[in-house]
Amino acid sequence: MSLLEFEKVNKYFGETHVLKDVDLHVEEGEVCVIIGPSGSGKSTLLRCANRLEEIQDGEIRLAGQSISNPEADINRLRQRIGMVFQSFNLFPHKTALENVTLGPQKVKGVDKATAKRNAETLLDRVGLGDQADSYPNQLSGGQQQRVAIARALAMDPHVMLFDEVTSALDPELVGEVLEVMHGLAEEGMTMLVVTHEMGFAREVGDRIVLMADGRVVEDSPPEVFFENPRTDRGKQFLSKLL
Ligand code: ADP
Ligand code: MG
């Protein structure tokens, strides 16, 4: 059994078939990088894993338990699957520390002192120990995104989903966010990462999953994908990067 399993997942928006028989198994501790052209279904796949979207057919399981089943306890599931988006979505009127303590206090019933202690540790871990009292508008985009990662980690998730988390950042701020993600990977976090950062994909990814038109068209280790892709779609995608 893999930690996160997508089996024959099909998703429609009205008449539009956006995920087509997607099979994907992510092992515990694995970093699975999803790449592919715009509109290929990458964000939708992550959103289905977090039940931000419903699927019409197939199944998604976390540690053997169905996520996609309508009876599943969504709140408990969402605690186990952290997600970070392209837009940082921090609460603007809360400090960095409060952004990180809010979820554990409200959703998990953690007491204030414990939540604060954990948040301080997490802010340290993302290199923002000295910004605990700053408000989002006092932080750079890269710093805000690192707070967003700390906020997701505060729920103690089993899996982290990252959807183009560096795409909205100025180029000089991309590295500091990727570095935090690299550290998480090294600590053994299971991660599903949608990104255009091919250096990161190659260095940190255990697997590269190429999506096109709602399907997984290649699923290869990075050294295979970037040197000798198995599929024509893979070759085509790579040739456009050069
Ligand atoms: P990607 O993240 O790979 O760019 P998306 O998952 O965002 O792709 O989109 C996949 C397809 O689903 C696209 O054709 C997009 O237009 C469509 N789509 C995404 N979200 C919605 C929505 N809420 N309603 C209707 N169509 C959507
Ligand atoms: Mg997307």
Automatic annotation (TrEMBL):
<dbReference type="InterPro" id="IPR003439">
    <property type="entry name" value="ABC_transporter-like_ATP-bd"/>
</dbReference>
<feature type="domain" description="ABC transporter">
    <location>
        <begin position="4"/>
        <end position="238"/>
    </location>
</feature>
<keyword id="KW-0378">Hydrolase</keyword>
<keyword id="KW-0029">Amino-acid transport</keyword>
<dbReference type="InterPro" id="IPR050086">
    <property type="entry name" value="MetN_ABC_transporter-like"/>
</dbReference>
<keyword id="KW-0813">Transport</keyword>
<comment type="similarity">
    <text>Belongs to the ABC transporter superfamily.</text>
</comment>
<dbReference type="InterPro" id="IPR030679">
    <property type="entry name" value="ABC_ATPase_HisP-typ"/>
</dbReference>
<dbReference type="GO" id="GO:0005524">
    <property type="term" value="F:ATP binding"/>
</dbReference>
<dbReference type="InterPro" id="IPR003593">
    <property type="entry name" value="AAA+_ATPase"/>
</dbReference>
<protein>
    <submittedName>
        <fullName>ABC-type glutamine/glutamate/polar amino acids transport system, ATP-binding protein</fullName>
        <ecNumber>3.6.3.21</ecNumber>
    </submittedName>
</protein>
<dbReference type="InterPro" id="IPR027417">
    <property type="entry name" value="P-loop_NTPase"/>
</dbReference>
<keyword id="KW-0472">Membrane</keyword>
<dbReference type="InterPro" id="IPR017871">
    <property type="entry name" value="ABC_transporter-like_CS"/>
</dbReference>
<keyword id="KW-1003">Cell membrane</keyword>
<dbReference type="GO" id="GO:0015424">
    <property type="term" value="F:ABC-type amino acid transporter activity"/>
</dbReference>
<keyword id="KW-0067">ATP-binding</keyword>
<dbReference type="GO" id="GO:0005886">
    <property type="term" value="C:plasma membrane"/>
</dbReference>
<dbReference type="GO" id="GO:0016887">
    <property type="term" value="F:ATP hydrolysis activity"/>
</dbReference>
<dbReference type="Pfam" id="PF00005">
    <property type="entry name" value="ABC_tran"/>
</dbReference>
<keyword id="KW-0547">Nucleotide-binding</keyword>
